[in-house]
Amino acid sequence: MLRIYSKDQISELVLSMRSRDRLCHSFLLVGDRGVGKKTAAKYMALEILCRGQGEIPCGVCKDCRMILNNAHPDVITVSASGKSGNYRADDLRPLISDAYIASNEGGYKIYILPDIDKALPAAQNTLLKIFEEPPDHVIIIMTAEKLENVLPTVRSRAIVINVPEASEEDVVAALAERNIPKQDARRAYQLFGGNIGACIDYLSGGSDELYLRVKSVSEALCRSDEYALMKLLNETDRATAVELTTELSKVLSEAIKRKQGYEDQSFYSSEARKLGDTTGTKALMLMYDRALEATKKLKGNAGVGLTMADLGAKLTGRL
Prior knowledge:
alpha/beta
């Protein structure tokens, strides 16, 4: 059975709506990559469509079993076709026509749209008709890392839910399901906090390379090592460049918050602390803006080499 950790408020909200027959037609789950947004979306689908008796979701009824096996005809996950994982209008248009067709199993029809914040504005606008006049049987569950990248007209028509990180004990429990020893799970928690996805990737070697690259970039900034910084930024492809600039902006954002007295706990806390100790607030804010600008350019298909070289020059104060 699928489990969600430290997400009780999300589960309780859906169950409460279901019990009153007042389910919202659109939800927007917001949180960092790896925090469990997609898992929460799938769990919400289980709660909405479960027809079992007693505890919901039961995990054994026909609907639950189909959802758990990714085979339910009324739970549709929409895929993006853009090179950087962004939705195009053509990716979302089929949803509009399909939404007006009755569900196969006679209940709700649920569309899951991961990373809607990566959708181009034109693509997001194609959904407005569904949000404004949703068929009674349709529910849309979206996920996003950055709420500000979701059009106001879209997010205003959805219930926005901030997906929390898991507690240390829940991280240990989640990783135990993957036969990861407690000591390794606690070590990952010290690095990545309650982001279960990041902990799993780190311990399996999946995100270790990206984490080390971001760490190295942060250290180069602390040392004002222009050569090391340019080398780290330039040796990358588009997808990695987007990830790198996105993660770097998180480090810089946390460093700024620390300068203002906020003590966030994340897997970049150490790097953020060092940057805060060696760099002024104004400089950090400029760096943050430049990292965001580079991410936007890369997602808009700007040249990778030129964009990263320009970012390196700006971060070192040469431009």
